[in-house]
Amino acid sequence: FCTDSTRDFLDMDDFMKLMDHILFSPTVPGTYNVSTGEGKSIRDIFDAVADYLNIECETPPTVPTGEDDIQTVILDPTKTESTLGWKAMTAFEAMITKQLQWYDQNGVTSIYSHLSQANTK
Questions:
Q1: What is this structure's pTM?
Q2: Which end of the chain has fewer CB atoms surrounding its CB within 10 Å, N or C?
């Protein structure tokens, strides 16, 4: 199943480029959102993985966001982009592909999730 929540997913290479910039360049102190500013659904991840694996499968049921979860987490990176001159550059689909290629090369040894089986009735 997929939840109907939306998140702002960031590629680790983009994150590390910002960390290098902060560590090795003069920066303005402050609080910054490190994000893409774009929301993607859990279903978007499902679709990207299915595309990568080149499989067709039934559309998974979508369930509401749990009571202990937040519907949407999307941050505004405007200050980070304008003040620090940094912008996330990796497209969502490219990020998912890169992660799946890593799993192809290194394998998956354990799977952890905070999710339990959803009641899809």
A1: 0.79
A2: C
Which of left, alpha, beta for 107 (phi over 0: left; psi -120 to 50: alpha)? left
Give kind and range of the element (H or E) at residue 19: helix 12-24
Determine how β-strand 40-41 pairs with β-strand 6-7: antiparallel
Span between the terminal Cα atoms of the chain, in Å: 12
Q: Tell me if 61 sits within 8 A of 2, measured CB to CB.
A: yes
48 three-state secondary structure: helix
**pLDDT range class, residue 90, cuts 50, 70, 90:** very high
pLDDT tens track for 35-81: 999 999 989 999 999 999 999 988 889 888 888 889 999 999 999 99
